[in-house]
Amino acid sequence: MKNRNGQDPEFSAISRRRLVKYAGVGATLAAASPLAAAGPAAADDNSRDQGGHGDSGKRVWRAGDHHVHSEYSGSFDTSTNPPKFIKGGDAVYPIVTNAIMAKHFGLSWVMCTDHGGPTHSKVNLEQAYPDLLRSRLLVPGVLQFWGMEFDAPALDHHTLMIPHHADEAQQLYELESRFAKNDPFPADPGRDTEAKMVEFLKAAKDMRRKPLVIAHHTSRSATGLGVYGQDTPREFRNGNNAAPDIYVGFEGAPGHQAGPLNGGARGGYGNYPTHGGFDQMTARLGGVWDSLLGEGRHWWITATSDSHVHWTRGGSDFWPGEYSKTHVLARQDYADIMDGLRNGRIWVGTGDLITSLDVSASNRGNEASVGETLTVSRRNRTDVEIEIRFRPLEGKNANGDRPEVRRVDLITGRVTGPSASLDTDTNPTTKVVARFGPRDWRREGKEYVIRHTLRDVEADLYARVRGTSTDEAEPLADGKESPWDDLWFYSNPVFVKVR
């Protein structure tokens, strides 16, 4: 029997001894990291400034991570029937350790996204979920979503985020057992088709409590620039057409960003690299992301850790929030965080280059922010005022640095409606309309402000912003440089509709 919060009573009766035991795990791991010394103070200061752990009733920028692995990303012994699950076969940390470290690095929300596998739906239901409930009690300051790294039919992995409610475990079990391509045992090749993916999205769309689906490391299997692997623009369009309020975006900055610190590639992109830590589908000006926005699609980008094993212990990962953050404008509330992700109230950044970013478009007293649409009339003057506000990091980031913004770009593209081809991967109208350096912004309180006028706007468009600590005109293909020396932030778009 469950209480009104959907928790078994036994989980509500955790002893003080167990609290100390679990908290000690996180403290030990934190102390083991040479990055930990600079992290907590900076994170705590920033979260107070932004209200990240403060006023839960106010919408402010709340940093989080929707792609984090625990020891339930394991392996399977398939010599037995049913297969035997082996904990810690891939990722190694308990769920509560990830939550402790997320809080340590300034996150307000986090999501456990473990790999699937044969009969993994039962592992999630019977083993992982009870640990999540314990972790929620042990680390109440961090909202901890339930879900998984969904082994999507015909595609690479995706976030499957379940709304927070009493039957969340059963909802995930239903979707994973019915649609995850690796869940059947013996394997079922019929699960691994795009038609099955669309069927999954339609089933999710019809649920009373709607989940979210976000694509992971979309070009990790790509063999060149514009030469895609498991994930293609066509599949994104088909999925978004089937469930536009469910399938809402992809990781702009994938995880595994610490790879170069151990001689590997950022993101684990061993064939074709990331650019400034961002996937080519996002970083390429006028590329896949811009082609989707040019259709008017509400398709958003995020940034995650994909944490499995910390780089100081031989892995390629940072802790949740240590390097990459997805900032959502929301209350400290499960439903509002999901609403912000669903509706694009998001900006993303690496290395805590900045701690807040607001982008708005206005005309004759009307205003819209990221994820929203400003409507202007041709009968009136159609100048659109763009305002960019960002707050620099006041302390030091997790590497002990105090990074500085060297440039901010304002990017626009035309919105022309659905493309003639589902395979379209460019938007030739996308351009950087203005570049700004430190002499171009002025300080207002703790923020820097940039204002720019788009003159005589006569057609639908979108505007988005990016910034960097580098002097690269466009983000360059990544080599073995330290990720701490190559920091970027991106806003999601604000749309302008002319009528």
What is the element layout, followed by pairings?
Elements: H1 9-12, H2 16-32, H3 39-50, E1 60-68, E2 75-77, E3 84-86, H4 95-104, E4 109-112, H5 120-138, E5 143-150, E6 158-162, H6 168-179, H7 194-205, E7 212-215, H8 233-242, E8 247-253, H9 280-283, H10 288-293, E9 300-303, E10 324-330, H11 334-342, E11 346-350, E12 354-363, E13 366-369, E14 373-376, E15 384-392, E16 407-414, E17 431-436, E18 442-444, E19 447-454, E20 461-468, E21 488-491, E22 494-498
Parallel strand pairs: 1-4, 4-5, 7-8, 8-9, 14-22
Antiparallel strand pairs: 1-10, 2-3, 5-6, 6-7, 10-11, 11-21, 12-13, 12-15, 15-19, 16-17, 16-20, 18-19, 20-21, 20-22
Helix pairs in contact: 2-4, 4-5, 5-6, 7-8
Radius of gyration: 22 Å
Q: Tell me the overall shape.
A: globular
Query: Which runs of at least 5 residues are low in confidence (pLDDT < 50)?
Result: 1-54
Number of strands: 22
End-to-end gap: 56 Å
* Helix content bin: 10-25%
Oligomer: single chain
- Can you tell me the CATH superfamily of the domain at 9-353? Metal-dependent hydrolases
Class per helix and strand makeup: alpha+beta
CATH topology of the domain at 9-353: the name is TIM Barrel
Let me know the largest β-sheet: 15 strands, mixed
CATH class annotation of the domain at 9-353: Alpha Beta
Number of helices: 11
Percent in strands: 25-35%
CATH architecture of the domain at 9-353: Alpha-Beta Barrel
Mean pLDDT equals 91
Biased composition (Basic and acidic residues): 45-60
Region (Disordered): 36-60
Protein name: Phosphoesterase
Organism: Streptomyces liangshanensis
